[in-house]
């Protein structure tokens, strides 16, 4: 059941990302897996895309669909990619699994004009409840892992992300929140947003 | 013969140029007439737009797939990659593999007859470059009426030819696969080539290149032994041989082939002398040493601006002769020019040789890429 729910979540992520990417732009997808999101962006948005992932076997699927792929470890940076060589750099459901999230965010905004960052909100109320009453490391349908096998090594909330952007002079241009299965664009107040959103999805850019 | 083999194949020879109208080489010297031996697998489509050129490495030749006669135990050097349903699928593509000039497998080289003397060229053969090899291949493709290659592929020195093609004739290469290669031969690789050449030229049987018959077999065998070490990896040598002794379980305290690795290398060395000419080894390694994209086309970023082909670069994690860092240098140059490029580093313990033996992984990558080129 959990995996189904997670699949549906990732489906809804993708639909939302599709609406955030303009047509015919250059897109770099970091942690692209089998390049299926890029495949959709190429088909529906006519973008020129490149996918980066640490897993070469998965990238072969991108090659089959004519997508350019690059095997690499995000934690080592992306020195082979020149400054401002893409319009959009996507980092969906990946920020929480890298060792050097700050390096990755910096690289994103060095390489691309805009970044699209999506991550699970670890301050969502069900997770808080689990921790508070259950006294156990938080789990939810979108975060079904045990403490010992979770790929999520960076635990952050929507509020944390906004704080970081403010510190680093990064502009959050657009925000989308997944709440109770629906995407919401604006919500009154950070406190409630941070309590209710399962997932946050942001378009960011380096303040000029 | 397995069902996915291209079966029996017959090499063909194409001749161009003459003593009066020779090919002008990069060195300024001339060569003519020039023979190019090649094989083809699969069938060309109506407009010959499904052709794939395969470029061989130092010790390879035109015989890339299939068998020359039914009793032949040895198949072509890339038989695991070329055939019906294989990485280079001969049901879909017309695969061509030609033999480089300067070699000793039929194309014009130091063992060919010099038209002026009626004797083998030997050291009178002009030094050729990767560019000259490509020029000769281009004449062959003109003859075969291939205007634009669907793709081309090569590993190691074969990769040099792929790169030279993509830079010299960008309009004739739709896509290119460069495997375990580099934009220039590194000082370390030149160093190993130097040892190999030195072993040959110091062999008294070399006679300043003028040997007849078998020639400097000891030197050539030593050259091959050194070369062979560079194609493998430490982890593979440890796993395959370790410190194992060949036959006894106690030391003999003499200089016979005691260790398994010793015996293996000696075998590889002498087997090589059966199928290779020592002077050819000098010429081909020299052509590799000279290869340097920057020297011919400027700094890499500038050089790769010329490339029109969609490119795939493959490297192997344990390859220390052509390490991943050297492949990435080219990928970076392509990205700097916003050129369509893909890069995959295959995790493998087989060292530089991986491109010949890791066929399962390479098949998926190559067939996927070739499929994507049409999109």
TrEMBL record, chain A:
It comes from the Bacteria. NCBIfam families: metW (TIGR02081). This is Methionine biosynthesis protein MetW. The gene is metW. InterPro entries: Methionine_synth_MetW (IPR010743), SAM-dependent_MTases_sf (IPR029063).
From TrEMBL, chain B:
InterPro entries: AB_hydrolase_1, AB_hydrolase_fold, HAT_MetX-like. GO terms for biological process: homoserine metabolic process; methionine biosynthetic process. The active site is at residues 156, 319, 352. It catalyses: L-homoserine + acetyl-CoA = O-acetyl-L-homoserine + CoA. Residues 50-358 form the AB hydrolase-1 domain. It comes from the Bacteria. The keyword 4Fe-4S does not apply. The keyword Cytoplasm applies. It holds the Pfam family Abhydrolase_1. GO terms for molecular function: homoserine O-acetyltransferase activity. Its main location: cytoplasm. Keywords: Acyltransferase, Amino-acid biosynthesis, Cytoplasm, Methionine biosynthesis, Transferase. One of its GO terms (cellular component) is cytoplasm. It is an enzyme of class 2 (transferase). Pathway: Amino-acid biosynthesis; L-methionine biosynthesis via de novo pathway; O-acetyl-L-homoserine from L-homoserine: step 1/1. SUPFAM superfamilies: alpha/beta-Hydrolases. Its EC number is 2.3.1.31. It is found in: Cytoplasm. Substrate binds at residues 224, 353. Transfers an acetyl group from acetyl-CoA to L-homoserine, forming acetyl-L-homoserine. Homodimer. Belongs to the AB hydrolase superfamily. MetX family. This is Homoserine O-acetyltransferase.
């Amino acid at each position: 059941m959990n995996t189904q729910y997670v699949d549906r979540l990732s489906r809804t992520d993708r639909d939302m990302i599709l609406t955030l990417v303009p047509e015919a732009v250059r897109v770099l997808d970091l942690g692209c897996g089998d390049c299926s999101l890029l495949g959709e962006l190429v088909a529906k948005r006519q973008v020129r895309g490149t996918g980066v992932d640490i897993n070469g076997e998965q990238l072969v699927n991108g090659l089959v669909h004519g997508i350019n792929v690059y095997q690499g470890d995000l934690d080592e940076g992306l020195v082979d990619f020149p400054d401002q060589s893409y319009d959009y750099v996507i980092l969906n459901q990946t920020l929480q699994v890298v060792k050097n999230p700050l390096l990755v965010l910096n690289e994103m905004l060095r390489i691309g004009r805009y970044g699209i960052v999506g991550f699970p909100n670890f301050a969502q109320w069900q997770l808080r409840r689990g921790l508070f009453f259950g006294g156990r490391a938080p789990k939810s349908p979108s975060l079904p892992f045990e403490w010992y096998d979770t790929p999520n090594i960076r635990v952050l909330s929507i509020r944390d992300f906004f704080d970081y952007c403010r510190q680093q002079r990064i502009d959050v241009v657009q925000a989308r929140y997944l709440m109770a299965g629906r995407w919401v664009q604006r919500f009154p107040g950070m406190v409630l947003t941070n309590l209710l959103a399962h997932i946050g999805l942001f378009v960011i850019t380096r303040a000029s | 013969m397995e069902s996915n083999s291209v079966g029996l194949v017959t090499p063909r020879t194409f001749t161009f140029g003459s003593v009066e109208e020779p090919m002008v080489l990069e060195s300024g010297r001339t060569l003519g007439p020039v023979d190019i031996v090649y094989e083809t697998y699969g069938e060309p489509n109506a407009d010959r737009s499904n052709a794939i050129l395969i470029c061989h490495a130092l010790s390879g030749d035109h015989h890339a797939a299939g068998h020359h006669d039914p009793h032949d135990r040895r198949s072509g050097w890339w038989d695991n990659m070329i055939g019906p349903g294989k990485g280079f699928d001969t049901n879909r593509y017309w695969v061509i593999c030609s033999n480089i000039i300067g070699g000793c497998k039929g194309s014009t080289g130091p063992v060919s007859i010099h038209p002026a003397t009626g004797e083998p060229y030997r050291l009178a053969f002009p030094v050729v470059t990767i560019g000259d090899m490509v020029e000769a291949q281009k004449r062959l493709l003109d003859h075969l009426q291939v205007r634009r290659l669907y793709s081309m592929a090569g590993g190691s020195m074969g990769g040099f030819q792929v790169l030279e093609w993509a830079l010299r004739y960008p309009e004739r290469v739709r896509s290119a696969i460069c495997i375990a290669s580099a934009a220039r031969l590194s000082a370390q690789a030149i160093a190993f080539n130097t040892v190999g050449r030195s072993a040959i030229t110091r062999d008294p049987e070399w006679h300043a290149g003028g040997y007849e018959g078998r020639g400097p077999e000891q030197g050539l065998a030593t050259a091959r032994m050194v070369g062979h070490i560079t194609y493998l990896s430490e982890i593979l040598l440890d796993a395959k041989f370790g410190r194992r002794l060949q036959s006894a379980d106690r030391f003999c305290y003499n200089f016979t082939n005691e260790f398994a690795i010793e015996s293996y290398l000696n075998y590889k060395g002498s087997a090589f002398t059966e199928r290779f000419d020592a002077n050819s080894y000098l010429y081909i390694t020299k052509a590799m040493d000279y290869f340097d994209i920057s020297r011919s086309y400027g700094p890499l970023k500038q050089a790769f601006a010329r490339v029109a082909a969609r490119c795939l670069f493959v490297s192997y994690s344990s390859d220390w002769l052509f390490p991943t860092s050297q492949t990435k240098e080219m990928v970076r140059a392509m990205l700097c020019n916003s050129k369509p490029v893909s890069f995959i580093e295959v995790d493998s313990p087989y060292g530089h040789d991986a491109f010949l033996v890791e066929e399962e992984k390479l098949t998926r990558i190559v067939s996927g890429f070739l499929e994507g080129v049409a999109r």
